[in-house]
Amino acid sequence: MINVRLFLVFAFDLVAVLVAWVGAFLLRFNLEWPHVFNAEIYYGALILMAVQLAACRWAGLYRGMWSFASLPDLRRLVRAVAVSVIAVMALAAFGGAWLLIPRSIVLLYPLLLIMLMGGGRIAWRLWKESRLTPVSDAGRKPVVIVGAGTAGAMLMRELARSPSWRVVALVDDDRHKRGLELNGCRVEGATVDLPAILQRHGARHVILAMPSAPADALQNVTRLATEAGAALFTIPGLAELMSGRVAINMMRPVKIEDLLGRESVRIDNENVQAMLTGKRILVTGAGGSIGSELCRQLSRFQPASIVLLEASEFALYMIEQWFGEHRPEIPIVRLAGDVKDESRMAQVFADHQPQVVFHAAAYKHVPLMEVGNAWQAVRNNVLGTLTVARAARDAGAERFVLISTDKAVNPTNVMGATKRVAEMVCEVLQHGPGTTRFHIVRFGNVLGSTGSVIPKFQSQIAHGGPVTVTHPDINRYFMSIPEAAQLVLQAAAMGKGGEIFVLDMGEPVKIVDLARNMIRLSGFTEDEIGIEFTGLRPGEKLYEELLADAEETLPTPHEKLRIARSRAVPDRFYEEVQGWLAQEPQMDDDVRAGLKRWVPEYEPRG
Asked: What does 209-254 look like in DSSP terms, one character per residue?
C-alpha cells in the first residue's frame, strides 16, 4: 500500500529540486530564459532529482515529521543538499562540452534548494501549530512564567497548545532580556516585579522555568508569589527534559526539596555495579524510609536477589508491593524478623547467604527513645547491629554497611549515643577474624522520612496551624532520601573496611525557615498559619555535627563523601558491651550511665 504522506513529501522535494535548478539559471541570467543552456537545464534537472532523492533517503530526511521539524531535521537537510552540491560540481567539472554548467550555479542552486526544502517544512509546522493553538482564550487561566531562558522557551511552546493555560508575561532577572519578547510574549520585568505583574494581568498562577536556579532565588520567588496570593508550580529539571524522560508541561507544585538547593548526586555507577550486580543482598529495616529507598536503588543494578527483612508487617507489605508493580523481574525474599533475634538472623544468613548487607533497622526518634524507652533503644540499635553484623561475619558476607547518623557525634541523647556504640561494634568486628568488610555511613535528616519534621509540619498546616518549632535558632542538616541512599551505595563501593563515611550535607537549615517556606508553599502567610516555639525536647540540641571534636577527615574520590577518623575503641569494649547487653532491663538513668562509659563525649541533656 502506498504511503500517501511519503509520496507527497517525495513529490515536494522533486519540485523543489526542479525549481531551485531552474531558478539558479534564471537568477544567473537576470530572470531571462537562457535558451543556449536548454540541454544543461533539462538533463541536469533529471540527474539532480535522482541524486537528491537518493541523498534524502541516505540522510534520513524522510524519517522526520514535518509537524515537528527541528534542528536535527535541518542537519539532515544540509547533508542531503551537500550531496547535490557535489553532484553539481561533478557536472561542472566533468560535463565538458556536453554539459556546460556556469560556476555561479554551483553556489545559487544549493542556496535556493535549502530555502525551498527547509522553508516548506517550517511553513508546514507553523501552519500545523497555528491549527493546534486554541483560537479563543476563554477558559484559559493567565499565568506568568519566571525565567526567559531555554526552559522558559520550551515551556511557552508547550503551553501555546494548552487549552488550560495562557501565558500573559515573563519575568527574568537578566536585565538584557527586559522588554524583549519570547514567542510573542514580553519579558515585563525582574522577579521583584512579580506581584505587580500578577496584579496587572489578573493572574493567580506562577510557573518557575528555572531548573538550575539556586535555592535563595527559588525562596525569593516563592515568597513573592505567596504574598501576591498566587499558586506556584515548577517544571522538571533540564537534564530530564533533554533526555526525553518527561515533558516540559509535566508541571508540579514547588516542594520544600526544591527550596533547599540540594544538587543532584553523581555516583560511580561502574564501581557500584561491580559491587552489586549478580549479588545476593540483604536489607534490614527494608520497609523504612532509608531501607525502602535503598531497595529501590539496589534494584537498578540487577542483583541476584534482595532479601527484605522488616519487623513491621505493613512496611514489609508496602515494599513488596512496590517491587511487584515496578520491578517484578527482581527476585525478592520477604522476611519478617527482629534484628535482635539471634536464632532468626542465623537462619536468615544460613538460608539465603547474602553477600552484601545494608543494616538500616534502628530506632531513630530522639524524644521517644529518651524517656521510658532508653533500654529498648540500646537493644535495638546496639544489640541489633551486633547480632546482624556477627551473623554476616560468620556467614562470610563480603560487606556489611551500617546506616548511622550525625547524632552519633558528641551525642546529647540516648539515640545518638546508641548509634555511636553501634559504630564502635562494627569497628571492632572489622579488626577481628573473618573477611567481611564493615563500613559505616553517617548522614543527617532526610526529607520526608517517617517521624521527621516535614510530615509533621504538613499535618499541622493542613489542620490550620499553628506550626510548632522547638527553638528559633535550632538548625539541622537535610538531604533527600534518594540522595542519601545513593551516597550509601557509593560509600559501600569505595570502602576498604572500617571507615566511617561522612556525607556532605551542605549547609544546615534553620527549622523556623523550613516552617516558613512550607507555610508559603501551602499558599498561606504567617498571619494565616502562625509559628509557635515550644522549647527544646529531651535530648535535643540546637545544632547537629557530622564530626566529633577528636575526629579528622580524609577526602575520597567522591566530592560528597569524606572519611572520618574517630578515636580508638577501648580495649575489652567488645566483651564488656556484650555482657552489658545481656543484663536485665535497666532504668533510663542507668542506661545513660552505661552509655557514658562507652562514649565519654556523650553529654545527656534533659
From this structure: --TT--HHHHHHHHHHHHHTT-EEEE---HHHHHHTSS-TT--EE-
Compute CA distances 121 → 61, 134, 156, 157, whole Å.
11, 22, 21, 18
Q: Is 183 left (phi over 0), alpha (psi -120 to 50) or beta?
A: left
- Residue 135 reports pLDDT greater than 50: no
Q: In whole angstroms, what is the distance from residue 555 CA to residue 573 CA?
A: 29
- The reported pLDDT for the residue numbered 239 is 47
Cα–Cα dist 67/408, whole Å: 60
Beta-sheet pairing, 478-480 with 445-447: parallel
Encode pLDDT of 560-570 as tens digits: 777 777 777 87
End-to-end Cα spacing for the chain: 83
pLDDT at 337: 93
Distance CA 289, CA 388 (A): 19
Among residues 169, 155, 56, 163, the alpha carbon closest in space to that of 113 is found at 56
Task: State which amino acid sits at residue 43.
Answer: Y
What is the residue type of 532? Answer: E
Return phi, psi of residue 141, to 5°. Answer: -80, 130
User: Are the C-beta atoms of 437 and 496 separated by less than 8 Å?
Assistant: yes
What is the phi/psi pair of residue 55, to 5°? -65, -40
CA distance 442 to 381: 14
Q: Which three cell numbers stand for residue 452?
A: 521527621
Cα separation, 296 vs 485, in Å, equals 9
* Planar angle of CA 49, 53, 55, nearest 5 degrees: 115
Segment 358-389, tens digit of pLDDT: 999 999 888 888 888 999 999 999 999 999 99
Task: Read off the C-alpha cell for 270.
Answer: 561502574
Classify 91 as helix, strand or coil.
Answer: helix
Q: What is the pLDDT of residue 108?
A: 75
d(CA 606, CA 594): 16
Q: Which residues pair with 335 in a beta bridge?
A: 309
Beta bridge partners of 536: none
**Per-residue confidence (pLDDT) for residue 329, from 0 to 100:** 93
Return the minimum-mean-pLDDT range out of 65-69, 88-92, 118-122: 65-69
8 A C-beta contact, residue 356 and residue 403: no
Confidence class for position 419, pLDDT limits 50, 70, 90? very high
C-alpha span between 288 and 164 (Å, rounded): 39
125: its cell numbers: 509546522
pLDDT band at 232 (very low <50, low <70, confident <90, very high): confident
Average pLDDT across the chain, whole number = 78
| CA 290 centroid distance within chain | 16
| Catalytic residue numbers, as ranges | 407
Give the position of cell 535528616. 445
- Phi–psi pair at 34, nearest 5 degrees: -85, 85
Strand (E) or helix (H) holding 289: helix 289-298
- Alpha carbons 53 and 61: distance in angstroms, whole number: 10
Lowest-confidence region among 4-13, 46-55, 64-73, 550-559: 64-73
Other Cβ atoms within 10 Å of 213 Cβ, number: 21
More confident residue, 419 or 255: 419
Whole-angstrom distance, CA of residue 113 vs CA of residue 115: 5
- What is the spatial distance between Cα 369 and Cα 373, in angstroms, rounded to a whole number? 5
Strand partners, 205: 231
Cis peptide before 102 (omega within 30 of 0): no
